[in-house]
Amino acid sequence: MFRRFGAKVNVSGLFSSGLYDQNTFYKAFIQDLHTCQGEVIIESPFITGNRIASLLPIFSKMRSRGISMTVNTRHPATHETPFDDQANAAITELQSLGVNVLFTGGHHRKLAILDQRILWEGSLNILSQNDN
């Protein structure tokens, strides 16, 4: 499950919020990526080739628009085979786009912050989710 907290304030003065699952998350998240204007920070402990392949074209367009991107993840050496090789290849591709990749040991946070106004947080690994 993932929860989105946005900058739109409702009548009561609270931020808007929505709950998403693996079936609804990516459509909404990608829409937010398309409207992003300045900065994206993604924390995802795992990275897989399939998920990066689906997101890389979007990330490439964002970088060409000058969007700053940072990914915080675990070092690929902490992944099991064959996911370590997938993570290495994905990180190389991200870095070739100019994405700043940080490594945090023992990291398990799953979140994304867009333009310092939209927060996605939950249990879904944004850069590796494949099924449930």
Distance between the termini: 10 Å
Q: What top-tier CATH class fits best? A: Alpha Beta
Radius of gyration: 15 Å
Strand content: 25-35%
Structure summary, number of beta strands: 7
CATH superfamily placement: Endonuclease Chain A
List the helices and strands in order. Answer: EEHEHEHEEE
Strand order of the largest sheet: 2-1-7-6-3-4-5
- Largest sheet, described in full? 7 strands, mixed
Please name the CATH architecture.
Answer: 2-Layer Sandwich
Shape: globular
Q: Unreliable segments (pLDDT under 50, ≥5 consecutive)?
A: none
Helical amount:
25-40%
Derived from helix and strand composition plus strand pairing, the structural class reads alpha/beta
CATH topology: Endonuclease, Chain A
Descriptive report:
- It is a single chain.
- The protein has 132 residues and is an alpha/beta fold.
- It has a single domain (2-122), classed as Endonuclease, Chain A, CATH 3.30.870.10.
- Helices cover 31% and strands 29% of the residues.
- The protein contains three helices and seven strands.
- The protein has helices spanning 25-35, 49-64, 83-96; strands at residues 2-9, 15-20, 39-43, 68-73, 100-103, 111-114, 118-122.
- The protein has a seven-stranded mixed β-sheet, covered by helices on one side.
- Helix 2 links the parallel strand 3 and strand 4.
- Helix 2 (49-64) packs parallel to helix 3.
- The radius of gyration is 15 Å and the shape is globular.
- The termini are close together.
- The model has no long low-confidence stretch (mean pLDDT 88).
